[in-house]
Amino acid sequence: MLDIRSSIATPAAKAQPIRRADYRPPDWLVPELALDFELGAGETRVTGSLSAVRSGAHDRPLRLDRDGIVPDSVRIDGVEADWSQLDDAIEVTLPGDAHSIEIAVTLHPDRNTQLMGLYASGGLLCTQCEAQGFRRILPFPDRPDVLTRYRVRMTADSTRYPVLLANGDPVGSGDAGDGRHWAEWDDPFPKPSYLFALVAGDLVANTGSFTTMSGREVQLGIWVRESDLAKTDHALSALKTAMAWDEKVYGREYDLDVFNIVAVDDFNFGAMENKGLNIFNSRYILADPDTATDYDYDAVAAVVAHEYFHNWSGNRVTCRDWFQLSLKEGFTVFRDQQFSADQGSPAVKRIEDVRGLRAAQFPEDAGPLAHPVRPDEYLEISNFYTATIYNKGAEVIRMMHTMLGEAAFRAGSDLYFDRHDGTAATVEDFACAMEDASGADLTQFRLWYSQAGTPRVSAQLSHAPGDGRARIALRQLVPPTPGQPDKAPMLLPLRIKLFGSETGKPLGEERLVLLGDTSADIAFDGVAETPVLSINRGFSAPVILDTNRTAADLAFLSAHDDDPFARYEAMQQLMLDTLVTAVTHGRADHDAVIAAVARTLASPDLDKAFVGEAVLLPSESFIGDQLSVVDPDAVFRAREALRRDLATRLGEQWRDAYDGAAANRFEYTPAAKGLRRLRNVALGYLAASGAPDAADLAFAQFEGADNMTDRHGALATLVNGTSDKRIAALDIFYNRYRDNPLVLDKWFSVQALSARDDAVDQVEELAKHRDFTLANPNRARALVGMFSVNQRAFHHPSGRGYRFVADQLLALDKLNPQTAAKLVPPLGRWKRFDDDRAAMMRGELERIVASAGLSKDMLEQAGKSLD
Ligand code: ARG
Ligand code: ZN
User: Where do the Peptidase M1 membrane alanine aminopeptidase domain residues begin and end (predicted)?
Assistant: First the structure.
C-alpha cells in the first residue's frame, strides 16, 4: 500500500482550510452593481460597474475574488488602473473611502464543463453561482455578507436567445440592431452574489398569476423548451400552492412582481433559489404521467416549494458566511417537509424523510466525512452541501418545533425574519430569536450545531406489577467523530407513550421527555398491565435507539400503536432484528415478521401508501449499518431469504393486494398513489415467491401501464429477475424513451441498482453505451451514483465495483469536480467492511489522491476518506 501521507503531501499542503473562527466582516462593501452582458456561447463579454465603499477604519486594498478569469481591464473612477493578481483574487488599492470600479472580462460559456458561473446547456446560457460561482463571472467580493443591489443588462442574438431573464423585475427591452436585442432587469432587494442569475435562450413559459395576501398580483412563469411545455402544469400548480402555504403557515408574502423558474438539463444539483429567477435541474420541473413516477411528482412539488421558501429563508435573510449554510438549508428543508406533509399523508412523508436520513446522513455522521451541522472548517465549500447540513439541519429545526410547540415556534420564526430582514445572519441569531420569542433556554440544545455524530440512546423499560409503576432507564452516548473525540450529552426530545399489552390501549397520554443528562430514570405511575414502550415517536430526535423490546413487543406495536410512524418503526425494528440475527447466526426465525406483515396487509382501514411502506424490508445498507463488520453477500442472502419466505407464505395476500390495487386511470391523488405503491410492492413479492406467472404479470403491467410509476415498477421487478422478458422490457423502454434524457436516466439507474449477480458486468457495459456521458450530471449519477449504493454489486468481492467507480470519478473530476466529489463517500466507508474489501477500497482512494491534477474538491473528499 502507498503511504498516503507522502502521496498527498504536495497538494494538501497548498490547500489551506477556511476556518469559521477566522471570520472577519468585509473591508469593503459594494452597495451597487450594474452588469452588462454581451452574450454568446463561444464568447461573452461582461462589464461590471460597482461602487466600493470602505467599511471601518483600515488601509487594506479592495480584494476581488476570481476563479479562472483575468480582467481585460480595470478602471477606477473612469481611469484605467493597475491591479495585483493573486491565485484566487485581484487586489486594487483605493485611496479614498468610496470609488466606482469598472471591470471588463471575457468568458467562454461553452467551455465551462464545471457548470459553475456562466455556462451553456443545450441551446441555453445560464448561471449557477452558489456557493462561489460568481467569481467565475466577475472579480468580486464573492461572500454572502456583501449585499448588493443589482441592475443587469443583456444583449444577445434575437433568434438564438429570444428570451432574456435575470433577477428582480424587468425594466426595459428593445432592438439592438444586427439581429440582436437587449433586455434590462432590476432587483430592488440587495443580495449576495451567490443569488445572482441570468438565463438566455429559446424558451417558452407556462404562465400564471398569484395574488398575495396583501392583494399584489405576481406573474409566474415556468420556462422550458417548447417541446417540454406540456410537462410544466404540475410545477406551476405546486408553486401556487407553496406561495399560499407560506403565507398561511409562516406569514411570508412574495415581494417582486414576477417569479420565474427555468428548467435546464445540465445542472450540478437539484435547483437554485436565485432571487426571482429560480434555476432548476429539469428533473425537478418536468412531469407528466407517461414520464414521471409518483416519486418524481412529489419531488417536483417539494423542490419547487423548497426553492420558493428560500425567498425568505435564504434570500431576505441570508447567511453571514458559509459555515452558517444550515441556517438557510436546514430551515428550508424543514419548511418543505412540513409543506409536503400537508399535501398528503404526514406519516408516509415522515417515513420517507427518516428513511432518507438513515440512508444518507447517518452513514455520513458515522464515517470519515462526519462534520457538525455548523462546521468549523472546510477546504472546498461545495463539499459541505451534505445530508448533515440539509437533513440533520432540518431535524434540528424540527426538534425546536417539537419542544417549543407550534405557536412559540411561529413566534420565533416571525421574530427571526423581522430582526434580520435584509441582512446576513447566523445560526446563533436563529437560536436567539427562538429563545427570545418563547422564553426557552436552548443553551444545551445548541450542541446539535457543534457536535457531529448520531447520538445513541438506550431505553430499558421495567415494570413492577405490585406498585403499578413502570420505569424507563435512559442513557445516551454521542460517539467520537473526526476531530471531536469527547462529546457532552445532548438535549434529546423523546416523545414516549406506553401501551397495555393485554388491552392494546394507551396507558396515559404521550409524554415529551427531554433527556439532557448521560442517564436518567423516568417513572410512569398507575400502570396496571404489562406495558409496551413506544419511544421516539415521530422520530422526535434523530438518534439510534436501542431498547429491551422483544420481537413480540415490536409485533404488538406494529399492530396497536396509535401513531402510524411508530407502527412503521416497530415493524422496521422487528425486521432489522430478525435480519441481523440471520446474518450473525446464519439463520433466524421469520415467524414474527411474517405474522406482523400478514396483519398489516389484512388491516382494511390502513392507508395503502402506508401499508406499502410498512411491509418493505430495510435496505441492504441499513442492515449493514447495524453490523460491526459488513458482509454484503451475507446481508443480501439473509434479506433475500426473508423476502422469499414472506413472499411464499403470504402468497395469497400479495395476490389480493396486487389485484385489489389494479390500476384504473392515472390520477395524482394520495389514494391513487397509495394503490400504485402497494401494487408495485406486491408485484415485487409475487416475483420473489417464484410464482410462475410473476414475470407475465410484470410484463403485462409494463406494457399496459398508463403511467410511469406502474411501468417503472414493473421494469424494476423484471430487471432484478431472471426471466427473458427482462431484455425485451429494457429494449422496449429504451426505444420508447430514447429521446427523453430524464427517462433514459431511469433506464440506466434501474440497471445500476439491479439485484442480479451480473450487475457489475451490466454496469461496465452501460458505461460504454452511446447514451452514457459524464458531461451530464444526471446521467453520471444515474449510473455511477446509483451503482455505488447498490451494496452487493458495488462491494463485489473482486473489487471490480470499486475500480469502476474510481475510474469514473477520475474521469469526471477533469470535467466537473463538484459532481465527482459528491460520489466519493461510498468508497470512504472502507472501515465498515472486511479486511480484503477495506484494502481494495483504500487502494482506490489512494489511487485517486495520487492522481495528477486532482481538484481541491476531490482532494478533500478522497483525502479525508483515507483517515
Ligand atoms: N441552494 C441550493 C438549494 O436550494 C443548492 C445549491 C447547491 N450548491 C452547491 N454548491 N452544491 O438547496
Ligand atoms: Zn436549499
Answer: 235-445
49/138 same-domain check: yes
Helix H or strand E segment including 644: helix 632-649
Residue where a domain terminates, one of 417, 450, 483: 450
Cα 386 to ligand 1 centre (Å): 10
Query: To test the ligand 1 pocket, which listed residue (385, 386, 390, 861) has its Cβ within 8 A of the most ligand atoms?
Result: 385
How buried is residue 783: exposed, middle or buried, by Cβ count under 10 Å (0-12/13-18/19+)? buried
Distances (CA, A) of 218 to 21, 212, 263, 276: 42, 7, 20, 11
- Determine the distance from the C-alpha atom of residue 643 to the mean position of all C-alpha atoms in its chain, rounded to a whole number: 29
Domain range for 65: 4-309
**Catalytic residue list:** 307
Residue 120 sits in a domain whose CATH number is 2.60.40.1730
pTM given for the model: 0.98
Distance from the CA of 385 to the center of ligand 1, in angstroms?
Answer: 7
- Domains contained in the chain, number: 4
Beta bridge partners of 513: 494
The closest of 124, 98, 79 to 29, measured between CA atoms, is 98
Specify whether 281 is located in the same domain as 344: no
Which ligand 1 atom lies nearest to the CA of residue 382?
Answer: 10
Nearest ligand 1 atom to the CA of 381 is 10
Model confidence pLDDT, tens digit, residues 647-690: 999 999 999 999 998 867 899 999 999 999 999 999 999 999 99
Indicate which ligand has the atom closest to the C-alpha of 272. Answer: 1
pLDDT in tens, 116-174: 999 999 999 999 999 999 999 999 999 999 999 999 999 999 999 999 999 999 999 99
Closest ligand, as measured to the CA of 386 = 1
Co-location of 366 and 438 in the same domain: yes
**CA 605: distance to chain centroid?**
33
Q: What is the pLDDT of residues 732-778, one digit of tens each?
A: 999 999 999 999 999 999 999 999 999 999 999 999 999 999 999 99
Determine the residue of 116, 128, 129, 130 to mutate for testing ligand 1's pocket, defined as the one with the most ligand atoms within 8 A of the Cβ atom.
Answer: 130
Q: What is the CATH number of the domain that holds 771?
A: 1.25.50.10
- Residue 850 contacts by C-beta under 8 Å, 6 or more apart in sequence? 2, 7, 8
145 assigned to some structural domain: yes
Judge whether 729 lies within some domain. no
Mark which of 309, 340, 368 sits at the end of a domain.
Answer: 309
pLDDT, position 722: 93
Per-residue CA distances from 687 to 636, 694, 710 (Å): 17, 5, 15
Ligand 1 centre to CA of 332 (Å) is: 12
Looking at the structure, tell me whether residues 224 and 250 fall in a common domain: yes
Q: Which residues line ligand 1 (CB under 6 A)?
A: 130-131, 269, 271-273, 306-307, 310, 329, 382, 385
Q: Is residue 849 part of a domain?
A: yes
At residue 218 the predicted structure's pLDDT band, cuts being 50, 70 and 90, is very high
What is residue 14's predicted lDDT score, i.e. its pLDDT? 60
pLDDT of residue 663: 64
Question: In this structure, which residue's CA is closest to atom 9 in ligand 1?
Answer: 382
User: What ipTM is given for this predicted complex?
Assistant: 0.98
